[in-house]
Amino acid sequence: MRSVKHEDLYLKGYATPVELKQRLAKYFRLYNSERPHQSLGYKTPDEVCQSGMGGGAGIVDKFSQKNSSDGSSEVIA
Questions:
Q1: DSSP code of 23?
Q2: Who contacts 76 (Cβ-Cβ below 8 Å, separation ≥6)?
Q3: d(CA 12, CA 5)
Q4: SS3 string of 41-70?
């Protein structure tokens, strides 16, 4: 959100909600499809998403449990 605010919203005055919607759609197409990002190895978000080699945070499931026959539980990481 910081990028869109500083690079688009604060710099341009939009006269109508329709104009705002059209210009933001254009900005997000540029941001996701054409503009390389340093944090993504100078690839676009679309390239990273399509490759399946995402740079997002991994979610670790610490709550899955497997019940054993003796009634105790063991955490599976």
A1: H
A2: 64, 65, 66
A3: 10
A4: CCECHHHHHHHCCCCCCCCCCCCCEEECCC
Q: What does the alpha-carbon distance between residue 17 and residue 53 come to, in Å, rounded to a whole number?
A: 36
**What is the tens place of the pLDDT at every residue in 15-35?**
898 988 998 899 889 888 999
What does the block give as tokens for 64? 């899955």
> Contact at 8 Å (CB) between 74 and 65?
yes
Residue 77 has pLDDT above 70, yes or no: no
Buried b or exposed e, range 35-53, using 16+ CB within 10 angstroms = eebeeeeebbbebbeeeee
What is the overall mean pLDDT for the chain?
A: 77
